[in-house]
Amino acid sequence: MIPTRRTLLAALAAVGTLASLTACGGGSGSSDSSSGKAGGTYTFWDPYPQFDASSAWGKLVTGCGTKAGVKLKRTAYDTTDLGNKALLAAQQGNAPDVMLVDNPVVSTLVEAGILNKTSDLGLDTKAIQKNIIGAGTIDNASYGVPIGANTLALYYNKKVLSAAGVDAASIKDWNSLTAALKKVKAAGKKGITFSAINTEEGSFQFLPWFWGAGGDLTKLNSARGVAALSLWKQWVDAGYAPKDVLQNTQTTSWQEFATGDYAFGENGTWQLGNAAKAGFDYGIINIPGQNGGSAPVPTGGEFVTVPVQKDTGRYDVSKKIVTCLTSDANLLPTDTTLQYVAPTAAVQAEQVKQNPKLKPWVDAVAAARGRTSGGLGTKYPTISQPMWTAVQAALSGSKSPQDALDTAQSSAQKG
Amino acid sequence: MTIARVDRPRRAASAAAGASGTDAESLRRRHRRRSRLTALAFVTPLLAYLAAFYLYPLYRNLDLSLRDYTVRSFVAGDAPFSGWDNFQKVLDDPTFGPAMRHTMVFTFVSIAFQYVIGLALAVFFNRHFRLAPTLRALFLIPWLLPLIVSASTWSWMFNSESGVVNYFLHFLGVSPVGWLTSPDWALTSVIVANIWIGIPFNLVILYSGLQNIPADLYEAAALDGASAWQQFRRITFPLLRPVSAITLLLGLVYTLKVFDLIWIMTKGGPGDASSTLATWSYQLGFGTLLPKFGPGAAVGNILILIALVFGLLYIRVQRRQEA
Fold first, then answer.
1. Which of A13, A111, A198 sits opposite B267 (nearest CB)?
2. For residue B268, what is the nearest residue in chain A, using CA coordinates?
3. How close does chain A come to B207, measured CA to CA in Å?
4. What is the per-residue burial (b if ≥16 Cβ within 10 Å, else e) of B14-50?
5. In a domain, A144, yes or no
6. Average pLDDT taken over every residue of chain A
């Protein structure tokens, strides 16, 4: 008798707690939406935890809020966290008013149905380069405004190259690059470092070579895809690239290049500040395609988005905030701080005028592609994961490039 | 258990008073009700805690694994019930076999080494030489360090280009090994790191077990001319058996779910050479741009089931020891 009654009481207590928890959740949600139209507090999320409220970026965000007549509460998350945080918040009905997200996440959030179209909000995106906004465009509708773009190129160490007798200008295609690596190794230095880690970063770094061979993401195991993976494998096997590329993030790969031992490092615009501090002369070339020319590189960088709200009256203010953040006058200082290339031709011209070193990056961005562009959308993540697994399998020697990509293709098709 | 102890004297007191009539009867009833309310008051915080932090998450995880969640239905909360589909999908996945195998190898090899080394050290420190307490305390360091620190340190030491392990091998004339970058070595490397982290736990528990073995047994054995090895085999090991069982079973449950160490060192790579059920579950749920909550939760539930089997085994062993 006593045991059963105890269980009953336990169950009642459990239900009581749960009910009170859900009640709390509902309460906070409703108080949120009641916080008026004009005035009040608006929420803003971004993936820049490195900038605090006193930074230029922090001040710009606060300023745009003030201009729109509201208090803008900014929260910074780690970039890998932001996508999942946004999904959870949307599920709980308290998504932020304005959110800055990494571009390949946009299509996932659109698939979840939590972003507004820029056309519905009445935002003007005409001035923005097509290939940059492409990553946030699904079925011909764009769901965000890029704040800036970054991409990949090859940094090279002038001293190492001249010691090995290599002229950077002679590197036009894969063959000449491999030949240069061979010479560097013969001269007792290290060839090239990149990131082939088993995360999205690994795919991001592999794409210039994959696309540079003419590869197609919907056919990973085509001869072109295999050629790109074979190139990387050849480098690792011959010792032109270190084995630890398999563990390298783009940051640790940069640290390797910054030791001064490496001839080349595949890295992004965001390392320019560190490059100046590296203590050696460096140059930048665009990543070559297999048979010459510049390889298409993937675009990086964030989009300003406006998540769906129950209270549609909030959009007017949100729109003002987005317009403020992405106005030409504000883009210039923002992209200078973030070391991004601006998404509009006018601001790009300004940037190059201020810093001529940005010219190769502006060119690279002009030739860049969004990872989720070309109708891939949320198919991209289901392709990217098998792709980085294949890169790892091939470089570590557990599978041949062809076998690895065959496996990747079949698991990408399963989705 | 505490509640039972509170109950007992009261009940005895009221039983003594209950000899005289109805007045005492109602008093006794009031007493009993009040004691039950007190008991409830004591137990409610625990129940609330269990419900909020164990029952509800478990229920949610089960729910996730039994529904066909996409990002859209996750947000809208209208994912259709799909029965065992997620489990079927996970079991059919080519990653499942290797992940299961790696989980088992990782768990059992880790435990075997942790236990043997832990026991050897415990016996060693039980000899009460000078500095023994200090040295024993030093052995606890792996336990005290935050896992992110120890895992990152191991990952640097095992680095194939600039790691200190390969540096020493170089002096011995051995060519460098791709500890974390070769599919043949990655699992071994994470196991080595995990053994190092697990030794203190085994050492501490087994050492305290040794303290409970009466010293006169050893004295008697020594008088009978038993060698050190015979003393260990005939006295230490059999008398340590209950403690050993608990250590091994707890270790099993802890090691099964190790995630952070592997994730920090290899992320389950290269390829899936060191992926276990725990890292795979995380990979599915959070490792890509498009989360697969359903299959991720399914893998998590399989892991919980395996841990549960060992947990029940532990409870059984414990009960048998108490009896």
1. A198
2. A198
3. 39
4. beeeeeeeeebeeebeebeeebbeebeeebbeebbee
5. yes
6. 87
How much is the pLDDT for B277? Answer: 94
Q: Are the Cβ atoms of A246 and B270 closer than 8 angstroms?
A: yes
Cα within 13 Å of Cα(A186), Cβ side: 10
Distance CA A383, CA B210 (A): 56
CB within 8 Å of B226: residues ≥ 6 apart: B234
pLDDT on residue B103: 95
- Do A378 and B290 count as a contact with CB atoms less than 8 A apart? yes
Beta-carbon contacts below 8 Å between A and B: 127
Q: What is the DSSP string of A210-261?
A: HHHTT-BTTBTTSHHHHHHHHHHHHHHHHTSS-GGGGT--HHHHHHHHHTT-
B162 CB neighbours in chain A (<8 A) are 244
Dist CA A397 CA A414 (whole Å): 25
CA distance B93 to chain A (A): 9
CATH number at residue A189: 3.40.190.10
Any domain includes A215: yes
Decide if A191 contacts A264 (C-beta within 8 A): yes
For A389, which of B75, B182, B271 is closest by C-beta distance?
B271
Give a yes or no: residue A58 inside a domain. yes
The reply to whether residue A378 touches residue B269, judged by beta carbons under 8 angstroms, is: no
A31 and A162 belong to one structural domain: no
What confidence tier does A38 reach under pLDDT thresholds 50, 70, 90?
A: low
Q: Are residues A207 and A222 in the same domain?
A: yes
Q: Domain span at residue A396?
A: 152-297+376-414
Q: Rounded mean pLDDT of B288-315?
A: 89
Q: Are residues A62 and A159 in the same domain?
A: no
- Residue A117 and residue A254 in one domain: no
Closest partner CB to A13 (pick from B44, B94, B288): B44
**Cα separation of B315 and B321, whole Å?**
10
Is B180–A244 a contact, with Cβ atoms under 8 angstroms apart?
yes
Contact between chains at A90 and B75 (C-beta distance less than 8 A): yes
Entry pTM: 0.83
Cβ contacts of residue A57 below 8 Å, gap of 6+?
Answer: A48, A51, A334, A337, A338
Chain A residue at shortest CA distance from B74: A91
Q: Which residues of chain B does A16 touch, with a Cβ-Cβ cutoff of 8 Å?
A: 48
Report CB contact under 8 Å: B159, A244.
yes
Give the nearest partner residue to B72 out of A104, A111, A247, using CB atoms.
A111
Asked if B48 and A392 come within 8 Å (Cβ–Cβ), the reply is no
| Residue A234 confidence (pLDDT) | 96
Q: Do A243 and B51 touch (CB under 8 A)?
A: no
Spell out which residues of chain B touch residue A83, defining contact as CB-CB under 8 Å. Answer: 289, 291
| pLDDT at A318 exceeding the cut of 50 | yes
Tens digits of per-residue pLDDT, B35-59?
A: 889 989 999 999 999 999 999 999 9
Give yes or no: residues A195 and A332 share one domain: no
Q: Please check whether residues A115 and A160 belong to one and the same domain.
A: no
The answer to whether residue B18 scores a pLDDT higher than 60 is: no
Checking ipTM against 0.85, whether it exceeds it is no
How is residue A255 written in tokens? 């640290």
pLDDT in tens, B91-149: 998 889 999 999 999 999 999 999 999 999 999 988 888 888 888 888 888 888 999 99
Task: Say if A371 falls within a structural domain.
Answer: no
* Count of domains forming chain A: 2
Please tell me the predicted confidence (pLDDT) of residue B288.
Answer: 84
Residues of B in contact with A244 (CB under 8 A): 159-162, 180-181
Task: Kindly state whether residues A78 and A175 are assigned to the same domain.
Answer: no
Same domain, A325 and A292: no
How many helical (H) and strand (E) elements, i.e. helices and strands, does chain A have?
A: 18, 11
- End-to-end C-alpha distance for chain B, whole angstroms: 17
